Amino acid sequence: MALFARNCAHCGTPNGAWGAGLAASAALVFLLAAIGVAAFTVVSWHRLPVEGPEPASTATSGDFGWLTAAMKDCDTAASAEPSALHLLVIPLAAAAPDAPQWRNKSLDNVGNAILLRSDDALAALTSGALRISAAQYVLRVRDDGTRTIYKWSPSVGVKRFSAPDADRIEGFKVQFLTDDKMSDDEWGVSFGRRKGTCYWVNAVIGPAR
């Protein structure tokens, strides 16, 4: 007798196992649906990075909400830990990084890079005039007072950096080292330190990849 038949096809006897089979099928369908929802939740969560390389889908869609969220997260972290120096590096790339349009909009030149205001950087990213650089870079920060240099490991993409032992820093300079810009003698102008502030470093550091 078939498990899911209500009556026997030959003698018409009611199938006592029909109800149990139906209940088991319903439970199986519910379990598969729950697994599907859980998998979708995990995948969706991984689409919202706070730091790290920019997702490829974001670069093509022009939606940079994840970037403004990363800026706010860095501000929150800096407010909670004012003794540390917090920076959010947004490495930018252009077809011609030395083009006058970027130098004319430069907030100030940092070592080996062109520094842009956040509004200009976001507008250029949205229009496609700039993109998140895929080049590897090394961030260095120098304390103006002690000339101590803070150096982080090579990084790629948008990333948050912090120096926890930076309570005495009153002013600092920033520098980027890349494969094609390796001079460690080039430092930008000094930035005054405001404790509890995250510094958004929107820097054109390389050509588009």
How would the blueprint of this fold be written?
Elements: H1 18-45, H2 56-61, H3 65-80, E1 85-94, H4 100-104, E2 106-110, E3 113-116, H5 118-127, E4 131-132, E5 136-143, E6 149-151, E7 155-156, E8 159-163, E9 171-178, E10 191-192, E11 198-207
Parallel strand pairs: 1-11
Antiparallel strand pairs: 1-4, 1-8, 2-3, 3-11, 5-6, 5-7, 5-9, 9-10
Q: How would you portray this structure in words?
A:
The chain is built from five helices and eleven strands, in the order αααβαββαββββββββ. The chain has helices at residues 18-45, 56-61, 65-80, 100-104, 118-127; strands at residues 85-94, 106-110, 113-116, 131-132, 136-143, 149-151, 155-156, 159-163, 171-178, 191-192, 198-207. The protein is α+β, with helices and mostly antiparallel strands. Strand 2 (106-110) and strand 3 form a beta hairpin. The model is unreliable at 1-5 and 28-61 (pLDDT under 50).
Descriptive key words:
209 residues; alpha+beta; six-stranded mixed sheet; 28% strand; disordered N terminus
Backbone structural class? alpha+beta
Mean pLDDT across the residues is 73
Write the element-wise H/E pattern from the N-terminal end onward. HHHEHEEHEEEEEEEE
Shape: globular
Using only C-alpha atoms, the radius of gyration works out to 27 Å
